[in-house]
TrEMBL record:
Name of the protein this chain belongs to: CRAL-TRIO domain-containing protein
Domain CRAL-TRIO positions: 70-258
One CC-aspect GO term: membrane
GO molecular function: phosphatidylinositol bisphosphate binding
Organism listed in the record: Diabrotica balteata
PROSITE patterns recorded: CRAL_TRIO (PS50191)
Annotated Pfam families: CRAL_TRIO (PF00650)
Length: 285
């Protein structure tokens, strides 16, 4: 039996992520009728696949946009989306938000997509670590990141992502607990799902960041690795990222980061039924 997909529009009248669907389509030279026709063709293709469900139009368009409206590439990513949970159990096997280890992972750090898009329709996300490494578990931390990314698949639409890594709390304790195997699996997932990253900014980094950067350049594709920028101050970051869109504790005009994180926690709870379904798929034969 094909499972029912939660309709995000019925869940939250004021979505956490603001999008500009018309602007994204216009960038790729697509009208609404063009998109409808492509979605219809992809739906017909999906019916012939052994997928456990028919994804929503928004999910399909999310991947279609990430693939620059290349239909064959989108088919590959859709196939990957329904296979990858079994292919990478190290990240997904114990990722249900109900689990105590995943609940605890919110205290380990965060992956926090910000509500507003930039003028060029990019999504800014902040990645941060907590200074307490005693309870840090890399697999749980990465699993929670993927849970939030999962929600972006249902609700987000943008041209690419700008990631800000706030590594002010990064220490050797984190480095020693980030085993290369788990990090490699995480990189594989993001590469396979064709997540488009325009820029990757690292700020407030201690000396051990050199090891993280060296590792990232080995695991990420060259195009993305070349987009890593290390900043000694936030002033240089503001030359690349619209300051006003950042949380107020990062010099911007947005809500405090912790408040946005709390909103993401609530958003994850709204999708608990969906995560239960995803868990059932990963454990099915």
């Amino acid at each position: 039996m094909k499972s029912k997909i939660i309709n995000a529009e019925n869940l939250d009248p004021q979505p956490l992520l603001l999008i500009n669907k018309e602007g994204v389509r216009k960038y790729w030279g697509k009208s609404e009728s063009d998109v409808c026709e492509i979605l219809k063709d992809l739906q017909e293709w999906i019916k012939k696949q052994n997928f456990p469900e028919m994804p929503t139009n928004h999910m399909i368009e999310f991947f279609l946009t990430n693939c620059k409206y290349k239909v064959e590439a989108t088919k590959d990513v859709l196939s990957t989306y329904y296979k990858i949970r079994k292919q990478v159990p190290e990240i997904y096997e114990d990722s249900n938000p109900r689990l105590s280890e995943i609940e605890k992972s919110w205290t380990m750090g965060c992956y926090c997509p910000l509500p507003q898009l930039t003028d060029d329709l990019c999504r800014i996300s902040i990645v941060k670590l907590d200074s307490n490494t005693s309870n840090f578990v890399a697999s749980s931390y990465f699993a929670n990141i993927m849970n939030i990314y999962e929600l972006r698949i249902y609700e987000d639409l943008c041209l690419s992502e700008i990631i800000i890594c706030d590594y002010s709390a990064l220490s050797w304790g984190h480095v020693f607990k980030m085993d290369i195997f788990t990090v490699r699996k995480m990189a594989h997932i993001m590469n396979s799902l064709k997540n488009r990253v325009k820029q990757l900014h690292i700020v407030d980094s201690p000396s051990c960041i050199n090891i993280i950067i060296a590792l990232a350049k080995k695991l990420l594709n060259k195009k993305l690795a070349d987009r890593i920028v290390v900043h000694k101050s936030y002033d240089s970051l503001y030359e690349h990222v619209p300051k006003d869109l950042l949380p107020c504790d990062y010099g911007g005009k947005g809500r405090p980061l912790e408040e946005i994180i709390d909103m993401w926690k609530e958003k994850v709870k709204q999708y608990q039924d969906r995560f239960d379904t995803l868990e059932a798929w990963s454990k099915s034969d």
